[in-house]
Amino acid sequence: MAPVTVFDEYRSLLFSVAYRLLGSAADAEDAVQDTWLRWSAADRSQVADPKAYLVRIVSNLAMDRLRSARHETYVGPWLPEPVLTTGETPDVAPALLLVLENLTPLERAVFVLKEAFAFTYQEIADAMDRTPEAVRQAAHRAREHVRENRPRFPADRDRQRAVTERFFAAAAGGDINTLMELLAPDVALWTDGGGKVRQAMRPVTGAARVAAWLAGVGGRPYEGVQIDQMSAVVAELNGSPGLVISGAGRVLGTITLDLDAQGRVTAILNTANPDKLASVQAGVVRQL
C-alpha cells in the first residue's frame, strides 16, 4: 500500500490523539504533519503495524510539545481551542481537557490512549518506551486526578442544549435571577482572550460574582461590535452543545458549559482569543 494511502487511513485518528493531548487544533495539525514527515522518511518495510507506529510517533511528538513551556508566557487563563464536532465525544469536553493540563505528559498520554482509544497497557508501554507496570501506575494517577477534579455525570444532550439556551438568554438579557437559578454555588467562569481581546484576567468564582459579571458584560458592545450586531447559535462544540457568538462578520467567541448531576452549571469556558477561533470561523467539522 502506498505511504500516502496508509497515512491518510489513520490521519483522523492521529489528529484525534494529538488534539486530546495538546488541546489545540493548530498544534495537533502540526504534530500530524511532523508525523507524516517522519513516516515518509521511514523504512516502511520494517513497520509491521502502521497504526501503532504512527500513533507512537504522534504521541511522542505531542508529549515533546507538552514538556515545553508552552503556557508560561500566556496572558490570562489558558483554555483549550474549541472545535466543531459531529457525534458524541464527551472525552474532548473543554473542561476535561483543562483538567488534563495538570497531568504530566506521560500521564496525559496514557490516559488518552487508554480511556479514549482503548489501547492496552502493553501497547501503550511499547509506544512510550515504558514498562507495562509504569504505564499502569501512570494511568492510576491520571484517573484519580480526573476523578477528583471532574466527576463524570451521565451525558444528557437535551438538558445540555436547554441549559445552554437558557444561560445565553439570561446572560444577554442581564437576568441575574435566572442566572442564579442556573449556576451552581461554586461555579467558575474562565475567559481566554490571550491578551488580544478584553476578558477577565483570572477565573471568576461563586454564583453571585459570576452572575454579576455576566450581566455586566452581556449588555455592552464588545471589541467594536454593537449588541444589535451580535448573534449566537447553539452548535456542536467538542462533542456537546455549546454557543458560537458572532458579529460583524466574524466569530467573537465560544462558550461551553459543564453541568453537575442536577443540571446546574459548574464551569463556564469562554474562548475569545482570535487565534483559537480560526477552526470554528472556517466551519471545519471534525469527527473526533
UniProtKB/TrEMBL annotation:
Residue ranges occupied by any RNA polymerase sigma factor 70 region 4 type domain in the UniProt entry: 96-145
One GO-annotated biological process of the protein: DNA-templated transcription initiation
Pfam families in the cross-refs: Sigma70_r2, Sigma70_r4_2
Record carries keyword Cytoplasm: no
GO molecular function: DNA binding; sigma factor activity
Positions of transmembrane segments: none
Superkingdom assignment: Bacteria
The keyword Transcription regulation appears for this protein: yes
Keywords carried by this UniProt record: Sigma factor, Transcription, Transcription regulation
Domain RNA polymerase sigma-70 region: 7-70
InterPro entries: ECF_Sigma-70_Domain (IPR052704), NTF2-like_dom_sf (IPR032710), RNA_pol_sigma-70_dom (IPR014284), RNA_pol_sigma70_r2 (IPR007627), RNA_pol_sigma70_r4_t2 (IPR013249), RNA_pol_sigma_r2 (IPR013325), RNA_pol_sigma_r3/r4-like (IPR013324), WH-like_DNA-bd_sf (IPR036388)
Record text on subunit structure and interactions: Interacts transiently with the RNA polymerase catalytic core formed by RpoA, RpoB, RpoC and RpoZ (2 alpha, 1 beta, 1 beta' and 1 omega subunit) to form the RNA polymerase holoenzyme that can initiate transcription.
Family, similarity comment: Belongs to the sigma-70 factor family. ECF subfamily.
UniProt xrefs under PANTHER family: ECF RNA POLYMERASE SIGMA FACTOR SIGJ, SIGMA 19 FACTOR
Name used for this protein in its record: RNA polymerase subunit sigma-24
Upper lineage: Bacteria, Bacillati, Actinomycetota, Actinomycetes, Micromonosporales
